[in-house]
Amino acid sequence: MSVKKFIAPQLAILLILSAVWVAGIDNVVVKSGYHQDNLHKYLQVQRRVIDNYFGETDISTLYNKSLQGIIKTLNDTTITLEGTPLDTTVKYNPQNLRDSFNQYEEAYLYVANNFPDVDMNRVVETSIKEMLSTLDPHSVYIEPDDSERIQEEFAGKFQGIGIQFNIIQDTITVITPISGGPSDQLGIMSGDRIISINDTSAVGYSNEDVVRRLRGEKGTTVDIQIMRPRNPNTLNFTIVRDDIPITTIDTHYMLDERTGYIKINRFAATTHDEFLASVNKLKDRGMERFILDLRNNPGGYLSQAISISEEFFPRNTKLVSTQSRHSRFNSEVFSRKDGELKDLPVMVLVNEGSASASEIVSGAIQDHDRGLIVGRRTFGKGLVQQQYELIDKSNIRVTISRYYTPSGRLIQKPFDGSSEDYAFEFRHRTTDATMDANEFKDQVPDSLRFKTTAGRDVFGGGGIVPDVIVQEDTTTSPYLFNFMLVNRIDFDFVRDYLDEKGDQFREEWEDNFEEYRTDFEWSDEAQQMFLERMEELGLVITEDIDEPAFEDNNLLITEEQYDELVWMNFGRMKAEMARQVWGSEYFYPVINDYLNETLNEAMNLWKAAQELEVYAQKQAESRTE
Q1: Residue 284 and residue 388 share a domain
Q2: What's residue 416's pLDDT?
C-alpha cells in the first residue's frame, strides 16, 4: 500500500473529528443511540436558530429557557434542584454554542440517570418549544406526524380514497366524494355511512382513526362496507388508493355577466396552476372585471403568492421585499412577465383572517394602485420562514426575514408583549360601510404613513388596511344562526332530508344548479320539520323575553324574532344542500347569495375602482412628461 493511500483516509478522519470538536458536538459523538439522537436534535435546533433567525439571538436566553423546559417536563414540585445541573437559581451564561450544548448535555444526562421513568424524547421536545418561545409567535416546533401532514397539505395532494367525511353519531358519514377520485369513480355517494374498514368495525372512530385507515400509498387497496339510506343491504367496495388533489380554490364563478369571482383558501404548491385554470374558465364566460377573495386565507408558499401577484402587473413591477440581519435572506422580487390579468379591473376582499401570502398579494395590488382592497384589516403576519428537518423527521420553522410591501410597509404587526395585539386599531365610526381609509389620516403617526405609486396614502403598523373598510354586519342578531351551527343542525337536517327525499330532489335539481340558486325554497313542511329539530335541541319559543337569550344551553326567543331571523338559517342550509349534492365549490355561490355583506358592498364599488384606475394613469403620465 502506498503512503498516499494510507495517509489520505487517516487525514480525512482527523479533519472530520476536528470539525466536530470545533462545532462543539464532540460529546454527542461518544454517546450511544437514543440519548445521542436526542442531544443531536437539541443541538440542531440551537444551531439553526443562531445561524438563521432574522433578529438578534442571545445564546444565554436560549439555553436558560431550554433548561426550564426540562424542569417543566419533570412536573414535580417536590424535587430538590439546588446544587444540581437543573438549579435555575444559578444563572449560567454560555459564551458560545459549545458551552451551551455541554451544559445542556449535563442537565439532560442528570435527568436520564436519576429519573428513569421520564420520557427523554419529551424532555428534549419541551426544551425546544421553550427555546423557540423566546423568538416570535411563528417560530415553532413541528412533531413528526404533523410534519408529514403539513407537507401533504402544502404539496397540494395526498394519497387515499378521496372523500370528504364527518363523524355523525359515531359513524363515518360521506359528505361528498372528491370529484374524479377513486370513491367517486366507484359510485360512492354523499350520505353513505362507512361501517367497516378492512373487515373491522369503523363505528366509534375519531377523525384521526379514519385518516390513518383510509389514507395510504397509491396502488394499495382498502375494503370498506357501506350502509346507504333507503337500501336494506350493505354495499361492499374494494377501493384502489390514488393521488387525491387538495384544491386551494374554493370556488370560481360569474357574479354577473361581467364579473368573475375566485376564492383562494391558502397558497399551496398547486395554487397558481389552479388559479390560472379558473381565470381561463371565467374569461371564456365573458369576464371583464374580477374579484379575488382572500378572506380567511392564512397564507402559505411565498413562491405561489409571487406567481399570483405577477398576474396583475406588467413585467418588472416590484412585488415584495424581504429584510433580515443575514444579508443572504435580503431580497427584492419583481414580476418576470406580463400578467394575464394586468388590464382587468380588480378588487381584493380581505379580513382579519387574511395573513402572510394573502397580505403580499393585497399589499402589492394596493401599493401600485392596481385595484381596491375591500373588507377589514388583515392579520399582520409578515414573517418569512424556513422549515428545517431534524434527525427524527420532526421539523422546526424559523423566521429568517420579514416581508415589506413595495411602498416599504412592514406587514408584520408587533409581537412584543401580547403576540396577538395590533400596534393600534382603526375603528369604523359610522354605519357607512364605504368609509375610505383616508379619513383616518389624522390618527396615524407620520412614521406609519406610506405612499402608493400614484401618491395615495396607505398605512403601516401591521397588516393591510383596506381602501374601503366594511365592518362585520352586527345589525342582525346571530343567536338563532349560531345555535344551529353549534348543534350541527344544518348538516344533520340536510343529510336526513336527502336520505328521505334525495331521489326526488336530484331528479328535479341535479342538472339545474343555477335554477336551484334562484328558485329553490324550503317547503312549509321542511320549515316545520326544521323548527321541530331546533326545539328538540333546546330552542324555546316564548313571549317572556325582550331579546334572544341563552339559559341552561337553551335558546329563548320570541316567535316574532324567530320569523325575522330564520332566513339566515334557511340560506345556510340551502348552501349545505348544494355542498352535499354538487360538491364543496357549490356551497359558496349559494352562501354568498345570502350572507356576504362585504361582497355585496364590493359590487357597488366598481365606479370607485374605475376612478382609481384613471387617477393612477394620470399620475403615471405626469411622471413621464
Answers
A1: yes
A2: 58
Q: Tell me the pTM.
A: 0.79
Is 356 considered catalytic here? Answer: yes
Q: Do 440 and 355 share a domain, yes or no?
A: yes
Specify the pLDDT at position 357. Answer: 93
CA atoms within 13 A on the CB side of 618: 8
Give the span between the Cα atoms of 289 and 607, in whole angstroms.
Answer: 12
Quick check: is 381 catalytic? Answer: yes
Residue 231 has a pLDDT of 72
Distance CA 316, CA 592 (A): 36
pLDDT at 309: 98
Q: Residue 475: which pLDDT band, with cuts at 50, 70 and 90?
A: low
502's grid cell? 334525495
Are the beta carbons of 457 and 449 closer than 8 angstroms?
A: yes
Task: Count other Cβ atoms within 10 Å, centred on residue 596.
Answer: 17
Question: Average pLDDT of 248-260?
Answer: 95
In this predicted structure, what is the pLDDT of residue 207? 77
DSSP class of residue 416 equals S
- The Cα–Cα gap between 465 and 366 comes to 10
| Calpha distance 403→357 (Å, rounded) | 10
Specify the pLDDT at position 253: 97
The active-site residue out of 367, 467, 490, 492 is: 367
Per the residue annotation, which of 381, 394, 401, 574 is the catalytic one?
381
For the stretch 144-172, pLDDT in tens is 766 666 666 556 567 889 887 878 778 89
Cell numbers 324567530: residue: 562
The verdict on 337 and 211 lying in the same domain is no
Please indicate, yes or no, whether residues 435 and 457 belong to a single structural domain of this protein: yes
Question: Is the Cα torsion angle 316, 319, 324, 329 positive or negative in sign?
Answer: negative
Task: Determine, yes or no, domain membership for 8.
Answer: no
Pairing between β-strand 346-350 and β-strand 289-293 as defined by DSSP bridges: parallel
Is 605 strand, coil or helix? Answer: coil
| The residue to which cell 403598523 is assigned | 461
Give the model's pLDDT for residue 353.
83
Catalytic residue among 183, 309, 356, 407: 356
Residue type, 479: Y
Residue 398 sits in the same domain as residue 412: yes
**CB 587 within 8 Å of CB 502:** no
Spatial separation of the C-alpha atoms in residues 340 and 61, rounded to whole Å: 50
**pLDDT for the residue 434:** 39
